[in-house]
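Hi R.,

Here's the chain you asked about this morning:
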Amino acid sequence: MHKVLFVMFTLFVAACDHDRDPLLQEAARSDEVAPTRASKERRTERPPRTAVERETKPPLQLASVEVAEAEDGHGGVVAAVDPVAFDVPARLAPPRAREPELHVGALVLQRPTYPRPGIVRFVLADRGLLRAGDDVSVGYPEEPSRRIVVASALEVHP
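And here is the predicted structure, written out as tokens:
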């Protein structure tokens, strides 16, 4: 029985060892398929994109909005005087069980809305509460040390 298995194994190895034959190698090269556009694009070396190239818009967008009520920055909702919306990319505040908070200097906005995919919006009731130069950061109440700064010096325009 061992002799039969040995002979079968030898024949199997011999059959698999065909790639050393120069004629078979030549035939295999001639049967290759021409490269496709996708395979050429995969082979081209592209330099890695930097964060500056990826970010075309600043991470924080301020916009005037028309709402009847908005946050006062101290945990309450009041009648809106001159409301301003802070639009932040949602990737900076990934979904969790609790909603994210936006910190603008000493003000804390705790009621986000999602006006369109990829955007988290916080609305402050009065633009007059903003101070130029304040830091703006987004994070979660349970992790204050892990807030992400989205604007290091707020520019306030009337």
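One quick note: The longest helix spans residues 2-16.

Cheers,
M.
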